[in-house]
Amino acid sequence: MKTLFSNRMIIAVSVITCLNFLSFSAKAFSGTGSGTIGDPYVVTTANQLNEVRNRLSANYKLTVDIDLTDWLTANFPTQGWLPIGAGGNPGKYFSGTFDGNGHVITGLWINRSTIKGDPQFHRVGLFGTVGGTVAIKNLGVIIATNKSVLGDSYVGGIVGAVVDGGILTMSSCYVQGNITTTNTSSFSYYAGGLIGGVIPSSDATASSVTLSNCYARGGTVTSQGDGVGGLIGFVQGVVNINISNCYAANTVVNADGMRSAAGILAMAGSFNGSATSDIKVTISNSVALNPSISGKPTLSKRIFSWNPSGAIITFNNNFAFDNLPVNSSIVTSGTSNNNNGLNKTSAELTTQATYEAMGWDFVHVWKMGSGEYSYPVLRK
Predict the structure, then answer these.
(1) pLDDT for the residue numbered 13
(2) For residue 359, what are the contacts with CB-CB under 8 A and spacing of at least 6?
(3) CB of 201 closer than 8 Å to CB of 165
(4) pLDDT score for 18
């Protein structure tokens, strides 16, 4: 009798475990694929894009363009998209790969800025928080017309914040539209067209961001406080940042006019006693095409705004539109190796040869835009 009871218990537990596994699997991802590098989950619908949050360390691939307009109206009509990895507590941030495969996510908007202290209202973007080793590539994000990606702090079109010594590689990605922070009651405000910022690791583990062949265009990046950049808002602590072959063509605004603003990356800072020499930033072969930049006069630049003494900042072969107004003034003394970039005319910046001379790949990666948009765009 005891053996029969034990066998029945084993069978019951096995059935429950199997059902729970099947239930979790169904909840995790409803599409095809196994989530591995060789067999990524294939995302074909808005609902499946939402399911990425259920398995944050898996690998994903888009095979179609996705319009979020109707899905957000049905599911989040007042607050918009809930960032993947919202809040970003340990183990709850995205740490996988996402291959846009040349496709575009349209209709994105976020309005999560009303409850101070709630983690879903900071670290805001398509992906709110990323950590571990992360790769995002071949992806376009178009923010809904007359809307914004909006949160309290660390707000970016694709990634809100890189945390806990995360290593992020972002390549061949772009964002079009408005990015906004609204927090005016603390020191965290940072906004960037692609990435809001890098939050330092408490154990001084180095964070790394490699940004290549990316751009942000159209709309306005606005911060109510410090650190607003056309591509990245703020990096802090022990960091290695490498930006190459990128450009920004969005308006950059520090709303109170007293903080840092820049066309590419706004600012870098030390953290919790870390050495400023632990900050390493390299910006090369990149271009500020912003319609305008505004912030504190001494902290507003076309390429990079501000860094503490001792940080290792390297500029190499960067350009800027010669009529780009910074606080309503035209920069006349920029060079390719400083934080304002070398002046280039509109005619030069709409000519493919200018970018080819910088080493941009117009065979596999880039092509010149057509119609009213005459700057480089990514090949699909």
Answers:
(1) 35
(2) 245, 285
(3) yes
(4) 37
Asked if 176 and 208 touch (Cβ cutoff 8 Å), the reply is no
Predicted confidence band of residue 152 (pLDDT cuts 50, 70, 90)? confident
Q: Which domains does the chain have, with CATH numbers?
A: 66-378 (2.160.20.110)
35-46 pLDDT, tens digit per residue, is: 999 999 999 999
Strand partners, 212: 171, 244
Q: How far is CA 56 from CA 27, 49, 88, 307, 374, in A?
A: 13, 12, 11, 33, 37
- Say which amino acid occupies 78: T
Q: With CA atoms as reference, report the closest residue to 252 among 321, 315, 348.
A: 321
Query: In the block, which residue shows the tokens 């107004």?
Result: 325
Residue 229: what pLDDT? 98
- The region that residue 154 occupies, defined by phi over 0 for left and psi between -120 and 50 for alpha, beta otherwise, is left
Q: How many residues does the chain have?
A: 380
Quote the pTM value: 0.91
d(CA 246, CA 228): 17
Q: How far, CA to CA in Å, does 349 sit from each of 218, 229, 320?
A: 17, 20, 9
